[in-house]
Amino acid sequence: MKISLQPNKFSTFWSLLFFAALPLQAATITWDGGGDGRSWSNPTNWSGDRVPGVTDNVVLPATTATNVIYHGSQPSPRTTLAS
After folding, report:
1. Is 34 within 8 Å of 64 (Cβ atoms)?
2. Does residue 69 contact residue 75 with C-beta atoms inside 8 Å?
3. Confidence of residue 49 (pLDDT cuts 50, 70, 90)
4. Who's near 54: CB < 8 A, 6+ residues apart?
5. What is the pTM for the complete model shown?
6. Taking the mean position of all CA atoms in its chain, how far away is CA 23?
7. Rounded Cα gap, residues 43 and 35, in angstroms
8. What are the DSSP calls for 21-33, one per residue?
């Protein structure tokens, strides 16, 4: 008797569905102004050189001495203005 260990399409579908439903872990992204120093959408203005996503926590330090240009297509609901 030969036993096959290859997953069938049904189990693959449910595995993918399960992992897709897991919540994403939020990262804390801090403004460092290392890019142009103004644009929210410039990844080099952020720690880790990536633009914050919708699940990330954003920190704008009190030492930020500029107006950050933010466009509505770049949401981040968790924003902290540090003092």
Report:
1. no
2. no
3. very high
4. 75, 76, 77
5. 0.60
6. 12
7. 7
8. TSPPPP-EEEB--
The answer to whether residue 11 sits within a structural domain is: no
Q: Say how many domains are in the chain.
A: 1
Instruction: Give a yes or no: residue 57 inside a domain.
Output: yes
User: Tokens 């050189």 sit at which residue?
Assistant: 49
The answer to whether position 54 is within a domain reads: yes
Digit-coded pLDDT (tens) for 8-48? 666 666 666 665 655 567 789 999 999 999 998 899 999 99
What is the torsional sign of CA 33, 39, 41, 44?
negative
49: left (phi over 0), alpha (psi -120 to 50) or beta: left
